[in-house]
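Internal QA ticket QA-208
Title: Verify multi-chain structure generation after dependency bump
Assignee: T.L.

Test input:
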Amino acid sequence: MQIHELAERLGWKQLTESDGADREALGCYCGDLLSWVMGRAKADDVWLTVMGNINAIAVATLADVSAIVLVEDAALDADALKRANQQEVAIYTTSLPAYETALQVAAALGA
Amino acid sequence: MSMLQLRYSVPGDDFTRAGEASGDVKHKLKKLGYNPTAIRRVAIAMYEGEINMVIHAGGGEAVVDVDPDKVVIVLTDHGPGIADVSKAMQEGWSTAPDNVRSLGFGAGMGLPNMKKYSDEMTIDSVVGEGTTLRMVVYAQSTKL
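Actual output:
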């Protein structure tokens, strides 16, 4: 399922210019330790995290996840937003915790 | 001689700029039409190396040689060196300070990730002099 379609279905709020229109969500990964995410997340996973700093944008780009979803209304730093727009990374936010969000993603993807 | 050689200076103590070199390598490999899985492995392995140089060594130098069949990444720094390489290779073992942990790093996964995503990795480190790390990623590797 395309990221923007998934976001619309689950009511995520878009923070970046990119809505991930060209990206497919194939799975989901939850984590806040950046190297752990790089070691374990797969390409095209939706990444659920509370880490909204500039390094998270680098991780999303290099690990090639399909989008970042900031859970529990976690803040996105201003310089991180700027970098995300430059790198065309799609970032969404939700007030739900990672666990509930992951359950919803799993149901939507038919996992 | 490799088909393409890329050289970068990695600034020390600047986490906002870490990832610029690996991001540029990723971009260039994409333009060359490199295997997407290999690109991802190069990008992650090199970013971990960059972060290590920022955290531990006050920066360093990255030289990337690109050939149709492989990418060779050599990271050189003049930092404190790694006293016990086998310990540093263990997942979860880290000497990163707390301010680095609050950024989401310092989980002790850097070197293990570099080993995981590269096909070959060698570490040459002398305490008090610095570290040279060499990684090779093959375009058609079936490792991951």
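Spot checks passed. The mean pLDDT of chain A is 96.
Status: verified.
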